[in-house]
Amino acid sequence: xxxxxxxWDSGASEELLVGGDVTEGVVRAGxxxxxxxxxxxxxxQALLTHLERVGFAGAPxxxxxxxxxxxxxxxxxxxxxxxxxxxxxxxxxxATSVASLLRAYHDAVASFGxxxxxxxxxxxxxxxxxxxxxxxxxxxxxxxTLENVVFSDGAASALIDFDLAxxxxxxxxxxxxxxxxxxxxPVEDRPGPLVEVDACARARMMVDAYGxxxxxxxILVPLARNxxxxxxxxxxxxxxxxxxxxxxxxxxxxGDAIRRRQAWLQKNEDALVAAVT
Length: 277
Ligand SMILES: Nc1ncnc2c1ncn2[C@@H]1O[C@H](COP(=O)(O)OP(=O)(O)O)[C@@H](O)[C@H]1O
Ligand SMILES: [Mg+2]
What we know:
By secondary structure, the protein is α+β, with helices and mostly antiparallel strands. The chain has 8 helices and 11 strands.
């Protein structure tokens, strides 16, 4: 489908959207969202255009750029968790609906393949372990946080914020989702409403709702540990190289939180494996 880029006017009245850590200047203008044009814009545009073409309803549409050079997307109506997180993030039904949405996203993005624009010279930060050898056969979302899912009538209806999308194995996205929504995090680092949540039981419900295959279930916990270790190094590198929100997160102690999560994963490994396999 050939799409003509339409140039939009700046919104007459703009409302600052907060919720993420990284992107500054995300605003709502009427039924649109304006995001600063950046390194990931070309990739996100191609990805959202693919999702539209295959009729996937669970993502914003890419509409064009505005007169200030910002990317213009549709504003997806619904509820999004802000900070502090609302009580409803503790709902099991909500969590399993996120898993179903992620599955639907994967099924829709599979035919997009691995376009060249997603090829990155991958630098392994000094000291970082290699990733586990998993088949990266689709473009994963890789940032399924509480703040990046829109809900409608109590069920997850759209993923937003595709800035970190990259070649992935399905199970890597499932790992990422469990980190936030199960949540696979120590109690002291969870948002209040998730403190009491049983991370084993929720993970089981979520991988069932996703329909995760048994091979992936078997590597889920080792993969979560590997990804956490790698994230520590990659976030430190991003803080050094890109600064901005990455620097702020690092200075606010995200590295130490990752270390605590690694210890939590190690301590709970047997129970988590038993829950998801
Ligand atoms: N297309 C959209 N539809 C509805 N809400 C959105 C949309 N894009 C962003 N938002 C809202 O703005 C917040 C921040 O936007 P996001 O794209 O996630 O930026 P960041 O990179 O800072 O996380 C989101 O958590 C959400 O509440
Ligand atoms: Mg976000």
